[in-house]
Amino acid sequence: MSQELNSEPEQQAAGAAKGIIVQINGESVSFDAKQITGSEIKQAAVIQGARIKLDYALAARRGHVWEWIGDEEPVDLQECDRFLAIEALEREDGPPCGCERPRTEITIKVNRKPVIMQRHVATGAQIKAAAITQGVNIKPDYVLSAKEPDGKWEVVPDDRWLRLHDCEQFMAVSPEEHA
Fold it and tell me: Which end of the chain is more exposed for a tag (fewer CB within 10 A), N or C?
């Protein structure tokens, strides 16, 4: 007996052998529509067998930055988009939505010096503070930039949350040098 699919995400997920394929927690999920809400992304992922739950928080990777996606927020899907769906935790020191991966040390580089971070997510200000604590010769008011895959540098505001990766490179320069 076939199950009736009532919602648009269920219909998309069932017939999604072609269309736009994205990654959610490393698993491929297909969509027929180019614009869909955060909630619909999670629903389709669950229907297609991704190991997430509907109450998980959702983030999309944009360059070096993970941007949190609200359930009703529209998302323009592109082939190979990467999403992260993780359990929401009640933490005062977590990212804006209260989500965080388990604690694991990660080593990044700030001005070519290794900096050990205790989490995979941090703000620009937290990266600078860790670098200062670990002896990198910078100040809290310095302008932080992240090296993009294409070799260009993108400014990281103090309040922006980033998903960090081992060996990721950052540069911090005085405001005068940046200008």
Answer: N
Architecture of domain 106-178: Roll (3.10)
CA 75 to chain CA centroid, Å, is 14
CATH code 2.120.10 for 8-86: no
Closest CA to 44 of 64, 62, 19, 67: 19
What residue ranges of the chain have pLDDT lower than 70?
A: 1-18, 63-64, 88-104
Return the structure tokens found at 175.
């405001």
pTM exceeds cut of 0.85: no
- Whether 69 contacts 75, CB under 8 Å: yes
List the strands of the sheet with 121-123, edge to edge: 27-31, 20-24, 82-86, 57-62, 65-69, 161-163, 121-123
For tokens 């604690």, the residue is 103
Would you kindly state where each structural domain of the chain is located, as residue ranges? 8-86, 106-178
Query: Do 106-178 and 8-86 fall under one CATH topology?
Result: yes
Under 8 Å between Cβ of 106 and 120: yes
| Phi, psi (deg, nearest 5) at residue 55 | -90, 5
Angle (CA) 139 117 84, round 5°: 115
> How far apart, in whole angstroms, are the C-alpha atoms of residue 60 and residue 28?
14
